[in-house]
């Protein structure tokens, strides 16, 4: 069983980055290219690097 991770602008409290299986499906919802979209993308890039480095 897996989980779908949804990252929505303005709702960082509900985003999580924990996997239950070694696969990820990330649904990223942008906010019309708001500056926070770029910082959120940067966080996801770092998380994906971490996952890949650790065997995903």
3D architecture notes:
The structure is a single chain. The chain is of the alpha+beta class. The protein has one domain. Helix content is 34%, strand content 14%. The chain has one helix and two strands, in the order ββα. The protein has a two-stranded parallel ribbon. The chain starts with a strand and ends with a helix.
Features:
two-stranded parallel ribbon, 1 helix, alpha+beta, single chain
Biggest sheet features: 2 strands, parallel
Which term fits the overall shape?
globular
Average pLDDT rating: 78
Low-confidence stretches: none
DSSP strand tally: 2
Helix content: 25-40%
Number of helices: 1
| Order of strands, widest sheet | 1-2
- Cα separation of the termini: 16 Å
SSE string, helix = H, strand = E?
EEH
Broad structural category:
alpha+beta
Report the portion of residues in β strands: 5-15%
Query: Nearest-angstrom radius of gyration?
Result: 12 Å
How many distinct folded domains? 1
């Amino acid at each position: 069983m897996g989980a779908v991770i949804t990252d929505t602008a303005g709702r960082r409290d509900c985003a999580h980055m924990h996997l239950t299986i070694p696969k990820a499906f990330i649904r990223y919802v942008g906010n019309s290219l708001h500056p926070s979209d770029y910082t959120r993308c940067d966080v996801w890039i770092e998380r994906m690097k971490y996952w890949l480095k650790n065997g995903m």
